[in-house]
Amino acid sequence: MSLSYSKRVQIIECPRDAMQGWKTLIPTQTKITYLNSLLKVGFHTLDCGSFVSAKAIPQMADTKEVIAQLSLEGSKTKLLVIVANVRGAEEAVRFEQITYLGFPFSISPTFQIRNTNSSIKESLLRVDEIQNLCLKNNKELVLYLSMAFGNPYDDGYNEETLLHWADEMVKKNIKIISLADTVGIATPDQINFALATLIAAYPQAEFGVHLHSTAADWQEKLAAALDAGCKRFDGALKGIGGCPMATNELVGNMNTERMIGYFKEMDMIRFLNEEALEDSLRLAEQVFV
Fold it and tell me: Which CATH class, in words, describes the domain spanning 2-287?
């Protein structure tokens, strides 16, 4: 049996974001089993791991071993991994299975240091180097504008700051840019304005959202993005996740099964494997305990 939602909408499932801040270490084989289940669902992309410091994010230290045992045969889902520097990107591009490298570029200077141990200036150089590595190795860079809607550090923020950095990334010929509500503080008006502005201004680029939300505000945030013309949505089953480098209190990811239900109610057309989705939801209950 299949589950329908818009063929225009891409859902990027992010178990990496769900796992990276989890309080207990998840065994490698458990990750492999869970990710292989997710690969059967039919998501556009699976954000499956990261090539970052094992000291900083110990939960992702086994990404190489996990990717090597993923069953991609018969799956149309593409793999994405997060990198924080050129060394990580050099490791990631060696894997034929990987299509996308994601780099978090924070428009908050404080968070850029916390998250990637680099200044804004240094991170701009990393973006260029990682983009070149992607082009040389038949990969595609997904640029995340972190803290896209404000930050908890008293760093200066306004909408012009976000639009400026989006413009800078488009100038670098980056085709996929995702606005990340890293700590879940975005308002629907902010989301709608930013996406509507950017989508109209840069038709050559694809703009998505990586929203963090609660049970109380997920729908209005999702609707704001969709109404602005957004077609790319990150989420995680059961809404688990959050960036452990951002704040002490993690705000969960956009809940994937709620998103699917929302798109289904709007009578949009694409197909997911409903049985595989249910299997993955049951596995999630065992993984995140």
Answer: alpha beta
